[in-house]
Amino acid sequence: MSTAAAPTKSAPTNWPVVLLVIGAGIVVAFQIGKAPAALPLLRADLGLGLVASGWVISMMNVIGTLLGMLIGAFADRLGHRRVILAGLALVAAASLAGAAAQGAATLLTSRFFEGLGFMMVVVAGPALIVRATDPHDLKLAFGGWGSYMPAGSGAMMALAPLLTAPFGWRGLWLANAVLVALFALALARATRPVAGKGAAGLSLPSVWRDIWTTVSSPGPMLLAVAFGTYTLQYLVVFGFLPTILVESEGLSLAASASLTALAIVFNVPGNLLGGILLHRGAPRWLLIAGASIVMAACGLGIYDGGLPLPLRYGLCVLLSFAGGVLPTSVLGAAPAHAPSARLVATTNGLIMQGSNLGQTIGPPATAALAAAIGGWQWSPAVLVFAAAIGVVAAMALRALERRAAGRYD
User: Fold this and answer.
1) Is the pTM of this model over 0.85?
2) How far is residue 83's CA from residue 89's CA, in Å, rounded to a whole number?
């Protein structure tokens, strides 16, 4: 565990910069939420089949699964501010290109580059927050950062119908391109005082050396495992919730989508609560373990068809809110557990790979189990198994931090 990753200066926190970096995470997360919301229009306009439609949604997760650490290592070498701004520019350009797509190939290519830009922003953003934040405020700042995904994707799912109704899906893509570009300009201006510099000597061997140093450190690996178990549980519930509401409860597609988006938004106050609890001294491992257990317990009720719909939906809201404590706890630990102050983005890249791997594994495993037994009743077994792994990772993290504290006493 490294304590060198935390800032050594005690200058006041530059909250405008912190908020702008969080905002950058939110606007790139818009690109996650816009695709599911516009998918029926995309399929009708471009003639997308089911397989192509699935790739439109999941392409950005694939980028994170394959390239998270590599992008983070380059960010540590090139400079975090530079990589964030380049990522925003890439997202804006890709969204603009996607708006002009006339077929699946062009659209999927644009989604690939949106995913690449997204990863550039989210792996480098925390390092810039560290540079702009007083150590005393760091846990609060990461409480805000942890909310970028639910805030961005949830808000876009809610707002997309307002834009697609008058302007179609191309208007939605264009609006995102303009918004991200404007945000890049604002961030470029505001972050000049905390720009910093990348490490000297960018070369492929040095990048691979940084990756090996990070992946061979126990702290980053435990954080990646904990985050992967969280995203697995989260996506298993909210990825299939619309289907369950339609097939089991007889709700319309519009109603099921609205209820799902509303539940997702409750993850945001959970993120903020996590930051407050950490700031007040709550043990990180306890928040990670507790969130994992609560999510699994909620899953048992959510998939119980004998419970009334209001109760099952209430458990979805509770799962989203309680689970929000975990991303803040994990992402906020990256600066402390990075092998060195220079490898914060590489560590975040590993955490994001764990996150995306969980999202990639969870839904297919749950769907296969449901298909094998002819129903959703055993689906909580996937959640309980993931939660158990998350608790083990939290306990191992506790032991690691106690050993580190003993060395520094």
Assistant:
1) no
2) 10
